[in-house]
Amino acid sequence: MQATRRHGDPSLRYDAQFRSFTIWDRADQSPGWTISHCPFCGEKLPDTLDELWWVEAEKFGFVDLGSDKKLLPAEMLTDEWWRKRGIK
Ligand SMILES: [Zn+2]
Fold first, then answer.
1. Which of 4, 33, 34, 79 lies 20 to 30 A from 15 at CA?
2. What is the 52 CA–ligand 1 centroid distance (Å)?
3. CA-to-CA distance for 38 and 79, rounded, in angstroms?
4. From ligand 1's centre to the CA of 85, what distance in Å?
């Protein structure tokens, strides 16, 4: 059977800033699916922090994707912000 690429060229990504695992479509550079469980053993992965990230980011005046990234401390662009706050 020939493999089809209906969804372009997917890749698995871990985004430390949001602590999220997603399957991206490399063809159009968009996240397709968030993965909530390990695809190998089925274990539940930690919850993603994207909603909480926005709550924190807004405190620095970063209100939408058009906002200047310079408003954010460097820690907000890595896993440092949630590790520092002890978020599990
Ligand atoms: Zn696993």
1. 4
2. 25
3. 20
4. 26
CA distances from 81 to 33, 63, 76, 86 (A): 24, 17, 5, 9
- How many Cβ atoms sit within 10 Å of the Cβ of residue 80? 14
* Domain range annotation of the chain: 10-84
Region for 41 from its dihedrals, namely left if φ exceeds 0, alpha if ψ lies in -120 to 50, beta otherwise: alpha
Q: Please state, in angstroms and rounded to a whole number, the distance separating the CA atoms of residues 48 and 34.
A: 9
Can you tell me which residue has the tokens 């994707």?
65
Q: How far is the CA of 47 from the centre of ligand 1 (A)?
A: 15
Summarised one tens digit per residue, pLDDT across range 16-67 is: 999 999 888 777 667 678 899 988 899 999 999 999 999 999 999 999 989 9
DSSP H stretches of helix in the chain = 50-58, 80-84
Residue that has been written with the tokens 């954010």 in this structure: 72
